[in-house]
Amino acid sequence: MTSDRYPPSPHRGVNTLVPGALVRHPTETDWGTGQVQSVIGNRITVNFEHVGKQLINGDVIALVPLDEA
User: Fold this and answer.
1) Which pLDDT does position 2 carry in this prediction?
2) Within 13 A of 2's CA, how many CA atoms are on the CB side?
3) Pairing label, strands 64-65, 22-24
4) pTM for this prediction
5) Does residue 36 surpass a pLDDT of 70?
6) Which of 3, 36, 50, 67 is the most exposed, fewest CB within 10 Å of its CB?
Protein backbone atom coordinates (compact mmCIF):
# COMPACT_ATOMS: atom_id res chain seq x y z
CA MET A 1 0.00 0.00 0.00
CA THR A 2 1.39 3.44 -0.91
CA SER A 3 0.13 6.97 -0.64
CA ASP A 4 0.86 10.35 -2.21
CA ARG A 5 2.76 11.32 0.93
CA TYR A 6 5.07 8.32 0.74
CA PRO A 7 5.91 7.47 -2.87
CA PRO A 8 7.04 3.89 -3.50
CA SER A 9 10.69 3.20 -2.94
CA PRO A 10 12.74 3.00 -6.14
CA HIS A 11 14.89 0.47 -4.29
CA ARG A 12 12.06 -1.98 -3.64
CA GLY A 13 13.58 -5.38 -2.98
CA VAL A 14 17.14 -4.02 -3.08
CA ASN A 15 18.99 -3.71 0.20
CA THR A 16 21.25 -0.66 -0.26
CA LEU A 17 21.39 0.42 3.40
CA VAL A 18 23.64 -1.11 6.02
CA PRO A 19 23.86 -0.59 9.79
CA GLY A 20 25.79 2.58 10.56
CA ALA A 21 24.69 4.39 7.36
CA LEU A 22 23.47 7.95 7.82
CA VAL A 23 20.09 8.79 6.27
CA ARG A 24 17.27 11.31 6.18
CA HIS A 25 13.55 10.62 5.88
CA PRO A 26 12.31 12.04 2.54
CA THR A 27 9.26 13.85 3.96
CA GLU A 28 9.95 14.17 7.70
CA THR A 29 12.92 16.54 7.47
CA ASP A 30 12.38 17.77 11.03
CA TRP A 31 13.38 14.28 12.27
CA GLY A 32 17.00 15.21 11.52
CA THR A 33 19.79 12.84 10.54
CA GLY A 34 19.28 9.18 11.30
CA GLN A 35 21.66 6.27 11.71
CA VAL A 36 20.55 2.88 10.44
CA GLN A 37 20.54 0.39 13.33
CA SER A 38 19.39 -2.74 11.49
CA VAL A 39 17.98 -3.93 8.19
CA ILE A 40 15.86 -7.08 8.11
CA GLY A 41 14.09 -7.59 4.81
CA ASN A 42 12.10 -4.41 4.16
CA ARG A 43 12.19 -3.38 7.84
CA ILE A 44 14.76 -0.68 8.58
CA THR A 45 15.32 0.50 12.14
CA VAL A 46 16.72 4.02 12.25
CA ASN A 47 17.68 6.18 15.23
CA PHE A 48 16.84 9.79 14.28
CA GLU A 49 18.24 12.88 16.06
CA HIS A 50 14.92 14.43 17.08
CA VAL A 51 12.42 11.55 17.26
CA GLY A 52 14.53 8.59 18.32
CA LYS A 53 14.17 5.06 17.05
CA GLN A 54 11.72 4.52 14.18
CA LEU A 55 10.82 1.37 12.24
CA ILE A 56 10.66 2.19 8.51
CA ASN A 57 9.04 0.03 5.83
CA GLY A 58 11.58 0.16 3.00
CA ASP A 59 8.94 -0.95 0.47
CA VAL A 60 6.98 2.24 1.19
CA ILE A 61 9.58 4.86 2.19
CA ALA A 62 12.85 5.46 0.33
CA LEU A 63 15.27 6.78 2.94
CA VAL A 64 17.80 9.25 1.55
CA PRO A 65 21.41 8.17 2.16
CA LEU A 66 23.79 10.97 3.20
CA ASP A 67 27.32 11.35 1.89
CA GLU A 68 29.88 11.01 4.66
CA ALA A 69 32.43 13.16 2.82
Assistant:
1) 47
2) 12
3) antiparallel
4) 0.76
5) yes
6) 67
Give the CA count within 13 Å in the CB-facing half-sphere of 4. Answer: 0
Give me the amino acid identity at 4: D
Is-contact 39 1, C-beta < 8 A? no
Q: What is the pLDDT of residue 58?
A: 95
The answer to whether 48 touches 31, Cβ cutoff 8 Å, is yes
Mean pLDDT of 35-56: 97
Q: How far apart are CA 21 and CA 5, in angstroms?
A: 24
Distance of alpha carbon 47 from alpha carbon 60, whole angstroms: 18
Output the CA torsion sign for 44, 55, 61, 63.
negative
3-state secondary structure the chain: CCCCCCCCCCCCCCCCCCCCCEEECCCCHHHCCEEEEEEECCEEEEEECCCEEEEEECCCCCCEECCCC
